[in-house]
Design goal:
Distance between the termini: 57 Å
Strand order of the largest sheet: 2-1-5-4-3
Number of strands: 12
Largest sheet: 5 strands, antiparallel
């Protein structure tokens, strides 16, 4: 059976209180026993001093008759509840008032003052004195039954038998009540969380406190916000992708239907139809490639096939490909240090630079120029791509790296608006970044920073 948090907290608290009360009870009994024993020893020593003073006087009156002096001393002392015996140092018992089993206890001829606990039938606490004020040659022994110690502990034991269960009951009830109050907000948050569905995406947990549960609610709301944003990106992705993919498919299907609508057509007509289909399939292939790259970059375990290569050769290759794609007489210029080595995923870095160069060519004016400037330091390689376009509007500068953002109103682009988003993902996958460093009427500059 799995216990609830409330039950476990109650058990833990009750167990802790049990240990605490047990430790207090044991300590109380031990301390009380030590204090009682100390007090009893002091009383027995005072009794010995009293008997010694009386014995000294009786010896003077009896002119040194030790036995008669001891008997008179015991008669006169009147120590209620105490057992007293008077010995000579040779062990001769002169007198006694002793009712403990086994008779008076002789401590030994060579023994000075001594305190001990007699075991066996006697079961007594014993104090013997043989130094002044005890007359020379005498030993006075006083004892008290150990039952006195037991009797003193009995009220404490009875009190503990009452207090201990009552304390445990109060501790368990208090822990149950406190745990219930502490966990009540958690139960309310769980109920609110169950009500958050796709039909109520804006619902959030109510945060009314600043303790750990409040922090948990805030963290949960943040998680839901991120999930909602991810779902929104997914919805927009599906909408944009389905819309954009439908266009080349529709054009290719229309061209094929037109070509097949008659039984016989000329070779030129079939060729024109196939050219349309081929062009739209290429466009469709580029869109699918961008979508796959974006999906790969969204994965947390996006692997990089790192190899050592010459970065200047990669820049030259990208510039050559850009010149082949360039229209309207756009020129591409490059500057890069020779024999510049780098370790990274060459294919992904090629795609990143091609995306940036294609974007720069597309936004450059007729007979304009695109400049690719590569610089290097001990810590990083920097690549700046500058076009001669009209710049990016202020309202769009913060969103150009988002998915499906296309700023070209001319309709010349046939992509999904993923080029800059993919380029930034590739740069960050290498530990670097892609930023917009300058834009205006004289053109736009993007800068890639790649750590070496």
């Amino acid at each position: 059976m799995v216990l609830s948090i409330r039950q476990r907290l109650t058990l833990w608290n009750t167990g802790a209180v049990t240990l605490l009360l047990g430790a207090i009870a044991v300590s109380l009994i031990l301390v009380h026993g030590q204090l009682t024993l100390k007090h009893l020893d002091a009383e027995l020593r005072r009794s010995n001093s009293t008997v010694a003073s009386i014995l000294q006087n009786e010896l003077a009156e009896r002119e040194g008759n030790a036995r008669m002096a001891a008997e008179d001393c015991l008669s006169e002392a009147g120590l209620s509840g105490r057992h007293v015996a008077i010995f000579l140092r040779d062990g001769t018992l002169l007198g006694q008032r002793w009712s403990l089993p086994g008779g008076p206890l002789f401590p030994g001829a060579e023994t000075a003052d001594r305190t001990w606990t007699a075991s066996g039938p006697a079961r007594a606490r014993v104090v013997s004195s043989s130094v002044p004020p005890v007359p020379p040659g005498f030993i006075i022994v006083t004892a008290a039954s150990s039952d006195e110690l037991t009797q003193d502990r009995a009220p404490i034991a009875r009190s503990l038998l009452i207090v201990f269960p009552l304390g445990l009951l109060l501790a368990a009830a208090g822990a149950w009540w406190v745990a219930g109050r502490a966990l009540r907000p958690a139960a309310a948050m769980a109920d609110q969380a169950r009500r958050i569905t796709e039909l109520s995406p804006d619902a959030r947990l109510t945060v009314v406190r600043n303790d750990e549960l409040g922090q948990l609610a805030s963290a949960f709301n943040g998680l839901v916000d991120r999930l909602d944003a991810a779902l929104d990106v997914r919805r927009r992705f599906l909408a944009e992708a389905s819309h954009e993919l439908r266009t080349p498919v529709s054009i290719a299907r229309t061209a094929a239907d037109v070509a097949l609508s008659r039984d016989a057509r000329s070779e030129a007509e079939y060729r024109d139809a196939l050219e349309v289909v081929s062009e739209q399939m290429k466009r469709l292939g580029r869109m699918v490639a961008d979508m796959l790259t974006l999906a790969r970059s969204d994965a947390s375990d996006w692997p990089l096939a790192r190899t050592d290569f010459y970065f200047d050769e990669l820049v030259t290759e990208v510039a050559r490909a850009g010149r082949m794609l360039a229209e309207r007489g756009v020129n591409i210029e490059t500057t890069c240090p020779p024999d510049l080595q780098y370790r990274g995923d060459e294919d992904l870095l090629r795609q990143m630079l091609l995306n940036l160069v294609e974007n720069a060519v597309r936004h450059s004016p007729e007979r304009g120029s695109v400049r690719i400037a590569t610089s290097t330091t001990d810590r990083e390689i920097g690549v700046s791509i500058h076009d001669g376009g009209s710049g990016i509007p202020d309202a769009d500068r913060d969103r150009i790296f988002d998915h499906f953002v296309r700023l070209d109103p001319s309709g010349r682009t046939d992509g999904l608006g993923l080029g800059l988003a993919i380029a930034r993902r590739i740069a960050r996958a290498h530990g670097g970044d892609l930023t917009l460093t300058a834009t205006g009427s004289d053109g736009t500059t993007f800068h890639v920073a790649l750590p070496r």
